[in-house]
Amino acid sequence: MATEYLSPLDLAFWRMESADHPMHLGALAVFRTPGPPGPGDGDAAERAAALLTARCAAVPGLRRRIRDVLLPLGAAAWSPDPGFDPARHVFLVRTDLRCPHEAAGPLMARPLDRELPPWEAHVLAGPDPDSFAVLFKFHHALADGLGALALAAALFDEVPGPRAPVRPVPGQRGGSVLSRLPGVLAARVQGVGQALEIGAAMAREGLPLGVPAALTAGPAGAGSRTVAGLALDLDEVNLIRKGAGGTVNDVLITLVAGALRRWLAGRGDPEPLGAGPRALIPVSRRRGPRDGEGAGNRLSGYLLRLPLAEPDPLRRLDRVRVGMDRNKDAGPARGAGAVALLADHVHPLGHRLGGPLVAQAARLLYDILVTSVPLPGLTFSLGGSRVHEVYPLAPLARGQSLAVAVSTYKGTVHYGLVADAAAVPDLAALTGALRAELDTLVREVS
């Protein structure tokens, strides 16, 4: 069997990780039970844990671990875990916390075991017998947001109807080496030019100046995490979009900008000035949730200045729309936000030696992560219990205090917030600010 090496970007995510700054994605799915369990069935959380334990062994992508290889120097590859044990990945957690987000914070802070396939599922059983939650953790080297969705969906109940076909991964072509040589050389030349262009765009952005102190985290809070979530009505978001223009994503980013402005004011921070913090907006290069399943990360990104200094909410939305349109016109392979593409131009040994340095330099590249994970319109369930809410959770880069992820499921927008617990002890106030900002924009367009 041919060795399957980690792609350059997957390898970068693997090498960047540290004990205080784990590089896993998360998704907190909240389930509602259809009714009381039958005699001898156990509770819904127990059934869910048993099903996840039984099903994960049948998903090839969840049985693979990462191992260093001798050649190429610094590279790593996927290999089957000969001692795969579902009990080391699926956990039933009993908690007296009514809000599953509170239980998710410490679990998100805990790194995955790098000797095992890099994923976990924590079934959170709280005091409410009619609901439970599952916190899925997937290392970023294993999958991006859409790839993680495909892996998690394989553990849920079978969805009625035909499944979408898995598209081939771009770049896997036949033919001899000689027949492909001209194309390979042309791609290398084009890639060098692209790398220089991205580097120049990063230099033009300059150093992070005037960033609110609340968005930065020092070493004192390393390793601590708090998680919060907020569910908003998608109809209200669409009302804003229709009344003020832009896309749904423009509105969702604008809500983050306005909420940050409110939150900072509530903390007594100085009035925001300048161009605003730089938000990294990841962009998937997949065509759908089953495109290249198991093929690792296929990401680029946009860099957007959040207009926190703009006091008018509709003008904030307009500035976000203009900035995103400019990014889209340039495309995801250009600009400072396309920094992820630079990983393709680094030798594996460079990733191994420079990974910790790159992790520490994240603060120089962007100030806050704002990512969107699109979910299909299917109804997911586990043991008959339906998914009621889905909160995506993003990794927190070194030196940054906050990461925002958002998804839309069944007519509801779910914001998942991950913060450094020491730097942001008032994360609940930020979720309240998001709600208030939505209400304000709805009034403005009504």
List the helices and strands and how they pair.
Layout: E1 4-5, H1 8-16, E2 24-32, H2 44-56, E3 64-68, E4 76-80, E5 90-94, H3 100-109, E6 119-125, E7 131-139, H4 145-153, H5 177-205, E8 225-233, H6 234-244, H7 248-266, E9 278-284, E10 299-305, H8 313-330, H9 348-365, E11 368-372, E12 381-382, E13 385-393, E14 402-409, E15 412-420, H10 427-445
Parallel strand pairs: 5-6, 9-11, 11-14
Antiparallel strand pairs: 1-4, 2-7, 2-13, 3-4, 6-7, 8-15, 9-10, 12-13, 14-15
Characterize the structure shown:
The chain is α+β, with helices and mostly antiparallel strands. Helix content is 35%, strand content 22%. The protein has helices at residues 8-16, 44-56, 100-109, 145-153, 177-205, 234-244, 248-266, 313-330, 348-365, 427-445; strands spanning 4-5, 24-32, 64-68, 76-80, 90-94, 119-125, 131-139, 225-233, 278-284, 299-305, 368-372, 381-382, 385-393, 402-409, 412-420. The chain has a six-stranded mixed β-sheet, sandwiched between helices. It has a six-stranded mixed β-sheet with strand order 8-15-14-11-9-10. It is globular, with a radius of gyration of 22 Å. The chain starts with a strand and ends with a helix.
Overview in brief:
Helices cover 35% and strands 22% of the residues.
The end-to-end distance, rounded to whole angstroms, is 62 Å
Helix-strand sequence = EHEHEEEHEEHHEHHEEHHEEEEEH
Percentage of residues assigned to helices: 25-40%
What can be said about the biggest beta sheet?
6 strands, mixed
Strand-residue fraction? 15-25%
- What sort of overall outline do the alpha carbons produce when their principal axes are compared? globular
Parts with pLDDT < 50 across at least 5 consecutive residues: 162-181, 183-190, 288-294
User: What radius of gyration results from the CA coordinates?
Assistant: 22 Å
Side by side, the strands of the main sheet go 5-6-7-2-13-12
Number of helices, counting only DSSP H or I runs of 4 residues or more: 10
Mean pLDDT: 83
Backbone structural class: alpha+beta
Number of strands: 15
